[in-house]
Amino acid sequence: MPTLVNDIQQTLPVDEAQLDLLISVLDFGLESHGKPQAEVSVILADNPYIHELNLQYRGVDRPTDVLSFAIAETVAEDQPPQMPEDAPELLGDIFISVEKAKEQAAEYGHSFERELCYLAVHGLLHLLGFDHQTPEETVRMRENEEAILRQHDLGRKPL
């Protein structure tokens, strides 16, 4: 099971169908980027929890919608963990504010499911090495996000 989800917030209910969709989208994202056996962990949080993470790790004193923490960035190169040869590659953790997902879905005029999955895919692509620091990187990341979401009928609707 490449994607593990832990819902630690109690502000907004996320039902089983929404969780199944989230897992399916992320598993497709892993497969489509050549990492079908890799694992990611998704933590569904509330605004206060993600606010603390954002402050602690990015120095930004407000809640955000999604944060990704790549395991490769936290492991010392000279001391890699000893893992069995057949162990899956562990990519990292994706924290999503369910409150922000709900707010942004309303703001952008699309479903909560689309926003939740978009944030998860955005986080996943960061774990896979994508970024959006330059216009070129942003275009590449957005194209990959939409390609994954379209496979689950969650792509952007034309204006």
From TrEMBL:
Known EC number: 3.1.-.-
Coiled coil regions in record: none
Major localization listed first in the record, in broad terms: cytoplasm
GO function term, MF aspect, one: metalloendopeptidase activity
Cofactor: Zn(2+)
InterPro entries in UniProt: MetalPrtase_cat_dom_sf_prd (IPR023091), YbeY (IPR002036), YbeY_CS (IPR020549)
Note describing how the cofactor binds: Binds 1 zinc ion.
Alphabetically ordered keywords of this record: Cytoplasm, Endonuclease, Hydrolase, Metal-binding, Nuclease, Ribosome biogenesis, rRNA processing, Zinc
NCBIfam families per record: rRNA maturation RNase YbeY (TIGR00043)
Protein family per UniProt: Belongs to the endoribonuclease YbeY family.
Name under which the protein is recorded: Endoribonuclease YbeY
